[in-house]
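OP here, attaching both records as promised.
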Amino acid sequence: MKMKKLLITLIFGLICTGLTLGTAWAESLVMKGSTTVLPIAQQAAETFMNEYPDVQISVSGGGSGNGIKALVDGTTDIANASRFIKQKEVARAVENGHYPVPFGIAFDCIVPVVHNSNPVDDLSVDELKKIYQGKIKNWSEVGGKDMQIVVVSRDTSSGTYEVWEEKVLEGGRVFPGALLQASNGAVSQAVSKNKYAIGYIGLSYLNKEVKDLKVKGVRASKDTAAAYPVSRTLYMFTDGWPEGVTLQFMNWIMHPEKGQKVVENVGYVPLY
């Protein structure tokens, strides 16, 4: 009887040890950053973990600037960004012993959106610039109704904001009266509830709750992305040349039949 109890105790101990070792052996990957890249990262993480059950992936948003800061600080394996890293960010990373390596993973359009009741359908880049600088203040000035324009923009930690600033505002600043939002989803929601509003979101975030506008006669889509006036590459940055599970994931995300299918499924344009 004592032998039986001893055997049961031993077996239970081995099982517990096995479970502990199994947890210890599980590899982990952390991704932080852009809310534009977030739909890719979330679906890619889920699909990748289904394919490789021994890997645990943590994904969070917060903006491109925050993702790159996490890479600079050494608190993430991959920084997701909807803009390229700045030279000053590279310098800070190197000072901290981290070496950002860029990987283009998708192509995107930044799409101006308005309330569904707004009759305006097409704006030029110059009209968008003047709206966001506060120089065009009424929808009647661009062929719409006599209504005050409510400008909705992203906060300055957003890569989407920085690309918009570069390509639409040409280095200028959004006027102080703009309503700043922390994510693509928040912009979409704000515009959907305000008939006076205009905002801008990534291609993947287009939905029936808002109306997307043409820019210079071109409507944003996966087919027109190359010709669309406000477009950009989406990135994942690794800390040095990737190794281990990070390399495995980066190879997977760029594979035409794996990660690039995820890119297409969530509404962006595959690069490979």
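Record two, same layout:
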Amino acid sequence: MLTVYRNMFRIRDLRNKILFTLFIFLVYRLGTAIPAPGVDLDAVKQFAEQGERAGIMGLLNLFSGGALEAFSVFTLGIMPYITSSIIMQLLAVVIPRLQKLQEEGEAGRKVITQWTRYVTVMLALLQSTGLTYLFHRGTLTNGIDLIPEYSAGRVLLIVLTLTAGTAFIMWLGELITQRGVGNGMSLIIFVSIVSQMPAQFLAVQRSTSMLKFSIVILMFLLMTAGIIFVDQGQRRIPIQFSKRVRGRRVLGGQSTYIPLKVNTAGVIPIIFASSMLYLPAMFVTAIPSSGFFGAIRRWIDGNLVNARSWWYVILYGLLIVFFTYFYTAIQFDPARQSDMIQRQGGFVPGIRPGSATTQYLQHIISRITLPGSLFLALVAVLPSIVAIIWGVSLGFSGVSILIVVGVALETMKQIESQLMMRNYEGFLR
């Protein structure tokens, strides 16, 4: 393994890409420590010392690398870009124009990327305006007013700063993709989550006994190994191409396969499910806190958006299973895949081309999606189940482990491909 790391830095081009990526990480982490203008630093410090973040605050703080609790210029993190990317993927299913752009190759992807940037900026404006108002009211900060001097000019300055911070993060991610190693946006999320893990494990160690802490570490390692095993799992559908004679040449007659991953949807279903559960947390702020509506508000706060509630665990798991099937259906279209195979002169051995192939692919993708969705649900809710049983917070979540392991594997594969091109041995053997 040490030889592999040494070989990474022997290749000048690869070494420069790795160092450039690490430099961008440094710039990003510095940005998370710079407070936004116009905020009360003493109130921000008091808010940061409260410790555990739950619900929408926990998700935003996770993806911002702790920038939210520090109310820095990178408070929104990369979440607006993630949301806009998901929106564009969903719209591509229902809007023919976007479908054509996806099929046009690099030129079409550039147009979609530009539209994604515009949507990101609009979402950042909306989210920064909402967060500024909620931080002033103390709705998400347990009554602490982070912006005591709440005026139109100050609000405009904060909103523009947070929006510019999101745009800057998006630019940093694109720089990593173009000149660094791996997918820039994924690596930004990766470094945000990893930066919070030491403090999270330290908090668990301080709040529990050594036995429970050892069990948590063992559970973390087992979840990591399970994610790697499932992420690498795939069902290979064999494809045979018929022979064609053109002049004196015989073309075709080759065989290949379609790799269908057990976890085709990745971490997207967990993000969808989390967003669905956090919507009530946002709307409940407008409900009166007394009387009948107050009882509804307290029930939603204590069950639907509380990670230590069995209602939360059950609903969260069911939503993940549902969105796994939903997103897999968007990502993999059996009818289109069957038509593409038939147009290329291929067929699945033992299956007639056309509708029979479509039904066969639909049957296979449905069967392998079930264990993938159940695994995602288990990984996502297992920390919450342990927290409910022990009555403590584990700090980390299943989604953080999924993202960290997934991004690490993809980055290692890219580095390995660079090493193999130059006859060096890679990580994955």
